[in-house]
């Protein structure tokens, strides 16, 4: 037997992304990803829910689908239906809801049934990086439309649709994150939602609505979801428990009419999303979801205030950002001299992890001086230390922020 490892290099598909690095733990100052506050994970509530539901229904784990069918655990779907009616103004039944392995699976399933190589999809110019990479892997033609203070620009969207129609191109969908947009944290007004729905109807292009952060509006009040405003089924809606309960649970949902859902179920061949997670969430959420999320919002609001205070103290006017109305991210713009992709590499060597803006934009050029900071996981003290360390690295690499010379040195 040879000791030399088998060589797979000539067998890998040519279109694979770059290989992943081995994981060596989180950096001390971790501002990347969509992690959440560890202290707010409702551990005791989840323990009690697991004990209760397993004692009552645990033997249903012996069957795929928990005797609820391929859409997922029925009590959880019923909870989601009630929640969407109350919070988002969506009228749907449990049979319109599919439980997914996180919202990412919802993205993949919609792309699998709608998008073929060469198809065109319209998305927000600043948006979830996972949506961009997945569409690229599908071979889609991505058309980015700017986002302003009110979310996806209806004026720019109309111009893009007119241009595509003139070339005989009908996009497969318009992807938007209307409520606590990622990464900008904007909340689209009702008027803007109506304008975008009107464009959807005029050009015959459906809307793919991603509302993964909608529970995290500080005030607890949000506009009606676009799915609720359009009863004809043109809007496909996805959401998640990742930001409201815990990311590692990997439980989300997808709402669609049967015409679409029947096609999605035909390709969702994973034998069902995680059953135990669904059972525990249904048991916990029925009794405690609203109180839990209300507390989480308060904790997250305190953390973003700590982040904004630290940025003002360390960067001064060199860091531009808007005070977000919810979510777990701050979208920051630095001076032209800064390349945040280079900054991210240098900062990581100093124990600070950040997401460069180019990863969250369809056009990497305007993202060059932007960065997305996740403030949900680190403590306020760690946030302050991490921003100070980031400012040191940024000054060393780019001269930003400008430091006054010490006359005594």
Explain how this protein is built.
Helix 3 (102-114) packs across helix 8. The N and C termini lie far apart (66 Å). The protein is globular. With 409 residues, it is of the alpha/beta class. It folds into 2 domains: 29-41 and 290-398, Aspartate Aminotransferase, domain 1; 43-288, Type I PLP-dependent aspartate aminotransferase-like (Major domain) (Aspartate Aminotransferase, domain 2). The relative contact order is 0.15. Helix 7 (226-229) links the parallel strand 8 and strand 9 (235-240). It has helices at 43-57, 74-88, 102-114, 129-138, 154-166, 190-203, 226-229, 258-267, 275-315, 340-349, 380-398; strands spanning 29-30, 97-100, 120-124, 141-145, 147-148, 151-152, 174-176, 207-210, 235-240, 252-255, 329-333, 352-353, 355-356, 370-374.
Quick take:
It is built from 11 helices and 14 strands. It is an alpha/beta fold and 409 residues long.
Average pLDDT for all residues: 95
- Please name the CATH topology of the largest domain: Aspartate Aminotransferase, domain 2
Q: Strand-residue fraction?
A: 5-15%
Rg over CA atoms, rounded to whole Å, is 22 Å
List how many beta strands DSSP finds: 14
Tell me the series of helices and strands, N- to C-terminal.
Answer: EHHEHEHEEEHEHEHEEHHEHEEEH
Task: Specify the structural class.
Answer: alpha/beta
CATH architecture of the largest domain: 3-Layer(aba) Sandwich
**Major sheet, described briefly?**
7 strands, mixed
Gross morphology is: globular
- How many structural units, i.e. domains? 2
Low-confidence stretches: none
Q: What level of helicity do the residues show? A: 40-55%
Terminal residue distance: 66 Å
């Amino acid at each position: 037997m040879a000791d030399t490892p088998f060589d797979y290099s000539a067998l890998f598909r040519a279109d694979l992304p770059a290989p992943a690095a081995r994981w060596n733990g989180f950096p001390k100052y971790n501002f990347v990803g969509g992690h959440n506050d560890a202290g707010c994970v409702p551990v005791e509530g989840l323990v009690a829910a697991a004990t209760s539901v397993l004692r009552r229904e645990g033997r249903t784990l012996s069957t795929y689908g928990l005797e609820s069918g391929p859409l997922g655990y029925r009590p959880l779907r019923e909870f989601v239906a009630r929640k969407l009616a109350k919070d988002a103004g969506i009228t749907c039944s449990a049979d319109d809801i599919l439980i997914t392995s996180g919202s990412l699976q919802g993205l993949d399933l919609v792309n699998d049934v709608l998008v073929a190589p060469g198809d065109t999809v319209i998305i927000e110019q600043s948006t979830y990086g996972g949506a961009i990479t997945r569409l690229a892997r599908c071979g889609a033609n991505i058309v980015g439309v700017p986002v302003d203070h009110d979310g996806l620009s209806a004026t720019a969207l109309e111009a893009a649709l007119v241009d595509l129609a003139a070339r005989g191109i009908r996009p497969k969908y318009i992807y938007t994150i209307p409520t606590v947009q990622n990464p900008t944290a904007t909340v689209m007004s009702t008027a803007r939602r109506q304008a975008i729905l009107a464009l959807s109807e005029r050009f015959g292009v459906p809307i793919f609505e991603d509302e993964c952060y909608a529970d995290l509006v500080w005030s607890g009040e949000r506009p009606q979801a676009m799915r609720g405003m359009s009863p004809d089924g043109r809007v496909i809606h996805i959401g998640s428990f990742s930001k409201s309960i815990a990311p590692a649970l990997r439980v989300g949902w997808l709402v669609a009419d049967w015409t679409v859902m029947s096609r999605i179920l035909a390709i969702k061949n994973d034998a069902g999303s995680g059953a135990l997670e669904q059972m525990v969430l249904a048991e916990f959420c029925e009794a405690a979801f609203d109180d839990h999320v209300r507390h989480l919002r308060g904790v997250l609001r305190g953390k973003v205030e700590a982040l904004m205070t630290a940025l003002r103290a360390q960067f001064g006017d060199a860091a531009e950002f808007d005070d977000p109305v919810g979510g777990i991210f701050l979208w920051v713009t630095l001076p032209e001299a800064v390349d945040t992709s280079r900054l991210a590499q240098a900062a990581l060597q100093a124990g600070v992890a950040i997401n460069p803006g180019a990863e969250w934009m369809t056009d990497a050029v305007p993202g060059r001086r932007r960065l997305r900071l996740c403030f949900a996981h680190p403590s306020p003290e760690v946030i302050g230390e991490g921003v100070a360390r980031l400012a040191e690295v940024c000054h060393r690499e780019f001269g930003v922020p400008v430091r006054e010379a010490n006359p005594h040195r």
